[in-house]
Amino acid sequence: MSAGDPTAVITGIGACLPPRIVDNDSVIARGALHTDDAWIRDRTGIARRRHADPSTSTGDLAVGAGRAALDSAGDLRPDMVLLATSTPDHPCPATAPEVAHRLGLGTVPAFDVSAVCSGFLYALATATALVRGGACTTPLVIAAETYTSIVNPSDRTAAPIFGDGAGAVLLRAGTQDEPGAVISSDLGADGSGSDLITVPGGGSRHPRHLPPPTADAHYFHMQGRAVYAHAVRRMTQSANAALDQAGWTPQTVRSFIGHQANQRILDSVGDRLGIAPVHRFGNIHELGNTAAASIPLVLADPAVHQAVAPGARSLLTAFGGGLTWASVTLTWPSVAPRTTAPHTDLDTTPLCTPDLSRSHPWTASTTTS
Ligand code: UT7
Asked: For FRET with 212, which of 76, 96, 284, 330 sits at 20 to 30 Å CA-CA?
């Protein structure tokens, strides 16, 4: 690889967060959970998260994030839409075509990417390969989730962890010496661990018209301790593989963003890679685990953009159900992220504009419930 080689370059960044901020005590009260604020903060790093209203779908959030990314990019028009999600609007069809339609993108190709929490990086790597191969020039990569639609509010191992939200990047064809250039990627999967993160019911193995295997089969289930160990190992290995491909050492990375699963996992991976804490970025404290959306929501975080210089070497890594894992290296984009209200011609309502006057831009906008 050399500086002038063609690749995809991030040229727009957007986010969409439901306005409702829910703190730990509210999650505990809602589910009558046997836990407390201190346990959740100490064991996960999470203080609050966003919850979408039941009337707000993953597609609604995806439209908001996509619109925001397009606004931040100026006049560019996407020629493809990839939507990473494990909480689609329906089992069939995919959510991406309707999102593309609502964004006014006509008949561009649009498809969902299903790799659970690794979904955004799977989609980013796929979109980059399509750009490099000439199949498209300007793909819009969105990751959107409403985990409140699948998490049992009475499950103390999941309800405090997950939140809702969406992030998006618009890519364009460019070269590796530009800020925002995707440099390398590493993807992997191990289906022997497919039972560690599941929604058992509702698919072809346990269709809804038959008696469910268990009463809670429609809810999300995670064997947290086992997932934790896999996540640390796989994200570390995958991040090193992506760095090797790029020809970068961990010591030269100036922004490290891991999937916001658990602050202790992120600390452990950062330590194993040898990346100094000052170069690690995240917002799990504010947003919890938003599955596929978590990495683009850090990319879109205004506070992170104030701290990282355009062109800085950046490393993204994720792990999720499947099992899947993925890492991407890129140079930090020279783009101001946007979180915007919808255009009036879009039938979507859940957008919020962050209040930048408070200490953390995404803590401020709304009520706790
Ligand atoms: O996003 C996709 C990838 N996801 C992840 O990578 C998440 C990975 N897993 C985790 O983040 C953590 O495993 C959890 C946050 C889910 C759980 O934390 P942990 O420190 O791994 O706890 P644990 O599962 O090892 O359980 C330790 C103890 C258990 O009690 P016993 O068996 O030791 O008596 C649990 O029952 O903590 C108990 N526990 C809780 N206690 C209070 C589990 N959840 C809670 C809770 N409050 N919310």
From this structure: 96
| Span between the terminal Cα atoms of the chain, in Å | 51
Is 92 tagged catalytic? no
Q: Classify the phi-psi angles of 192: left when phi > 0, otherwise alpha if psi is within -120 to 50, otherwise beta.
A: alpha
Q: Write out pLDDT tens, residues 318-365.
A: 999 999 999 999 999 999 998 863 333 444 443 333 333 334 555 554
The sign of the CA dihedral 146, 23, 64, 184 is negative
Residue 215 carries which DSSP code?
T
The CA distance from 217 to 291, in Å, is 20
For 251, the domain range is: 6-340
| Domain-located, residue 349 | no
Alpha-carbon torsion angle 152, 156, 161, 162, nearest 10: 10
- Give me the number of domains the chain comprises: 1
The neighbouring-strand residues paired with 171 are 10
Nearest CA to ligand 1 atom 9: 224
Alpha-carbon dihedral angle through residues 30, 31, 37, 38, given to the nearest 10 degrees: 180
